[in-house]
């Protein structure tokens, strides 16, 4: 008889402050995973095409659109719940799933507005837990003045600083891997991102215990 073992895929979340090159690095990681023979699927949050995602898109792009901070927060969370079964299914099929933003953005952006951190976290409890969360960050605050800020809601330097503080509260989690982008080019950051992934998958195999 022959036996076929199917292991579940790896769940990777890429998080970062706005304008840290998150989208560029996500694309790079996906290409590299594919080259490595992985069957990769990208899910970007907010997923703006679903029913809830459409409201979120309007909220983000139209500053005259009125929504309380609490309602907005719950919509972002609900948007993740819309996709949660799909994530489990993809992982079960052995796919590597890359999430461009996830729970951590949800909590960081809303608690930066003044909502309680634990309140923000609660609606996301029970969502699939990433094997690794790669967090792209700046050391230097002056990067918040980078060109391109200010197009969408939240893209204000002062607010970004508050978001950064909230993101840091996750740094104690064992799946949390920070990557500093200051002074590094796309290739260099890409190497660091890849190392986060390979370290995490080694860890998932489990260390040899004596
Ligand atoms: N954002 C994103 C939140 O405020 N809460 C969330 O749960 C998520 C997933 O949406 N400024 C914010 C962060 C971003 C904005 O994301 C749009 P992106 O990656 O720029 O499309």
TrEMBL record:
Annotated Thymidylate kinase-like domain residues: 14-188
Superkingdom assignment: Eukaryota
Q: Which family does it belong to?
A: Belongs to the thymidylate kinase family.
Name of the molecule in the record: Thymidylate kinase
What taxonomic classification does the UniProt entry list for its organism?
Eukaryota, Fungi, Dikarya, Ascomycota, Saccharomycotina
Please give the first and last residues shown and the length of the full protein.
18 to 227 of 438
């Amino acid at each position: 008889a022959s036996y076929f073992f199917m292991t579940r895929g790896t769940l990777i979340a890429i998080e970062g402050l706005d304008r840290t090159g998150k989208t560029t690095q996500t694309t790079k990681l996906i290409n590299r995973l594919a080259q490595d023979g992985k069957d990769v699927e990208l899910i970007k949050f907010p997923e703006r095409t679903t029913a809830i995602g459409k409201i979120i898109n309007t909220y983000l792009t139209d500053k005259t659109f009125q929504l309380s901070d609490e309602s907005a927060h719950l919509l972002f969370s609900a948007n993740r719940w819309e996709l949660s079964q799909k994530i489990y299914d993809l992982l079960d099929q052995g796919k590597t799933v890359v999430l461009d933003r996830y729970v951590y953005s949800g909590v960081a952006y809303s608690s930066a507005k003044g909502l309680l951190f634990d309140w923000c976290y609660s609606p996301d409890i029970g969502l699939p837990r990433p094997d690794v969360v790669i967090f792209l960050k700046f050391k230097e605050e002056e990067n918040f003045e980078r060109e391109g800020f200010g197009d969408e809601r939240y893209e204000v330097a002062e607010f970004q600083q508050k978001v950064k503080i909230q993101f840091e509260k996750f740094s104690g989690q064992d799946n949390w891997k920070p990557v500093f982008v200051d002074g590094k080019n796309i290739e260099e950051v890409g190497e660091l991102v890849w190392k986060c992934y390979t370290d995490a998958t080694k860890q998932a195999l489990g260390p040899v215990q004596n």
